[in-house]
Amino acid sequence: MKKWLLMLMVMVGLMVMLAACTTTGGTDSDNGTDDEETTDEGTSDGGGSGDHILRLNNENEPTSLDSTKAFDNVSYYILNNLMEGLTRLGDTHEPEEATAESWEVSDDGLTYTFTIRENANWSNGEPVIARDFEYAWKRLANPETAADAAFLTDLIEGASEYNSGEGSADDMAVTALDEKTLEVTLNSPQAYFLSIISNPAFFPVHFETVEEDDNWAAEADTFVGNGPFALTSWNHNSNLTMDKNEEYWDVDSVQLDGVVWEMVSDRNTEYQLFQTGELHTSSIPTELAEQLIADGEVEFEDQSGTYFYRFNVEMEPFQNEKIRKAFSMAVDQQEIVDYVTKRNENAAHGFVANGFPEPSGEDFRDVGGDLLSFDPEEAQSLLEEGMEEEGYSELPEITLSYNTSDEHKLIAEVLQDMFKTHLDVDVTLANTEWNVFLEAQQNLEMQFSRSSFIADFADPINYLESFITGSSMNRTGWSNEEYDDLIAAAKTEADEETRFELMHQAEEILMEEAPIFPIYFYNQPLLQADEVSGIVRHPVGYIELKWASIQ
């Protein structure tokens, strides 16, 4: 039996015993663990007024609640309910009217003219106006903002030039024609434009508030939003509360009185809180996933995303393509989803996940096929060739980094064992808390690190544009001029068949040069209390609570 599989079986046994103990004793505060006590205190501080309070777990402190600066799930889950863009994704995950009550599109498909609702207000009672959108979108593209999501504006005329320092804000074709009319001109017709502007990066900001205080989004008492809920308290690293926003234009559709978001990073603790009724939903502890799924307790929702690892090509030994490919091909993705995560994920053999239809109706992933395979013999051969090219008699020390999580740790340990078994390479593991980890990864301070990508909008280009030269999402140091040219061409190509072919060519280069390697494609398995309904979980990685209710 493989070492890691034996280790996993032992861990499962221990966790099942732990779950049995905590299930019977979880309500007894005298027997609670330190984690449980901290969480209980946070819940009581979090408050929430009214009978219909939804209690959810956000796992971690939001990176930012400034929509221009935030760019991760732990921020977007909350932001998508505190604020609203011109469009909002509905229950079918298609864009629909939101702060904009209507829009017109020019005959050439380039110019959109949005009309903002007369009764769209900020949480402070002031009207949402077109200038708030123009200001926010140009702030997003402004190179001084250094926003991670700035690349999402590239389809707007003049935005990439502004962001690169080759143009100005005036060159970016977003214009408030009057208080309730916004005009936007694109570089080329793109069918996904209405979907992309539902992303939190395109939310407006209250002009006066931001101008007066750049830290306006750091505390509840200075935050101003325009969404279904208003931020009422924020106990940092503990919990956050939001109440129904009475200034929201569609407040009659909001059935909840409020939402309390806990920040519990340990999935076993989260599961215990769900069992005792202190949370209405829960993710699934890895060690209990198989049994919970077999018992029919788990609901599955679609999610578009990839769990993967990044090599830093500026650090030895991963400057060598053959060595990167050797590590990639030494990993058995199918064993990881079958025996480690066990949540019915699909093993990933390309970077772009399933779920994107081609013009022919076929799925992008099916057309692209498998671009990475588990092949330990070829991996060993490539490692030897790469070491010879670099003049290595032995590899430099290798450290695999991951952000603190029991599951990330377990997957890292399995990879560590696979590298030892198939390559005879010793790999050291290092874990770091999320915010520190993210900053270090962005600064290319990590040699080899775990990562994940959840789609921001429903198109393969969103995955692939992450790895162009200089992208804030690249985080590998990898650069390929042909790849950059293919992505640039795809982003301005109006013919869909040609556009998809360009994206396939780009993905082939990405997987061939291997600055990354994928593990699995995400789904959304969860536990949810029977009395809760109406939560919409979008495949692009954030949720809607506007229509949620508690019976």
UniProtKB/TrEMBL annotation:
It comes from the Bacteria. The keyword DNA-binding does not apply. Its main location: membrane. Belongs to the bacterial solute-binding protein 5 family. It is a lipid-anchor. SUPFAM superfamilies: Periplasmic binding protein-like II. Residues 25-65 are annotated as: Disordered. Keywords: Signal. Residues 95-473 form the Solute-binding protein family domain. Pfam families: SBP_bac_5. The keyword Iron-sulfur does not apply. This is Dipeptide transport system substrate-binding protein. Residues 1-19 form the signal peptide. Residues 31-43 have a biased composition (Acidic residues). PROSITE patterns: PROKAR_LIPOPROTEIN (PS51257), SBP_BACTERIAL_5 (PS01040). It is found in: Cell membrane. It comes from Alkalicoccobacillus murimartini.
